[in-house]
Design brief:
CATH class: Alpha Beta
Order of helices and strands: HEEHEEHEHEH
Shape: globular
Distance between the termini: 68 Å
Strand order of the largest sheet: 1-2-6-5-3-4
Helix content: 25-40%
CATH superfamily: Rhodanese-like domain
Length: 158
């Protein structure tokens, strides 16, 4: 009888652990994802009923290099809300959840576009949405402005 209760207790402890771990992986607007879908250098596919697209990710070093050497070849958009500063060289601040504003500001679906936010979550969501709308040259910056600052770089504020 004692062994049966010990086994049941062990099962309950394991189940609570599984639930807690799964809750820690849930997505919020500002919690970086804990899986490998937003790791720098990865190519991500998005599929819907009618389209399939791809966006890529950049490390902070790759992002900084582009800003230093090729800024005119990319449209760089800060999609974080609320506004919380920006990386020097940013072309516009457009909320990640305002698809009308994003598509109006980005009419060329084949243009090279880099999206970033505070942590990477909002820019990932915006990247997925734009890919579903047919955009073909998208880059996301996982870690966003937090990683930018952690690398010793500064943000501009308005």
């Amino acid at each position: 009888m004692k062994a049966r209760y010990a086994g049941l207790l062990l099962f309950l402890v394991v189940m609570v652990g599984v639930i807690l771990i799964s809750l820690s992986f849930s997505e919020t607007d500002e919690t970086p994802r804990m899986d490998n879908t937003n790791m720098p250098g990865m190519v991500h596919t998005t599929e819907s009923l009618n389209t399939q697209g791809v966006y890529q990710t950049l490390t902070i070093e790759e992002f900084a290099s582009i800003l230093d050497t090729q800024p005119d070849q990319y449209t760089i958009i800060n999609v974080h809300i609320p506004y919380d500063g920006e990386v020097q060289g940013t072309d516009a601040h457009i909320p990640f959840n305002d698809l009308d504003a994003l598509t109006t500001a980005l009419p060329d679906k084949n243009a090279s576009i880099i999206l970033y936010c505070r942590s990477g979550n909002m820019s990932e969501q915006a990247s997925r949405q734009l890919v579903e709308l047919g955009y073909t040259q998208l880059w996301d910056v996982p870690g966003g402005m937090s990683a930018w600052q952690a690398s010793g770089r500064e943000l501009l504020t308005q």
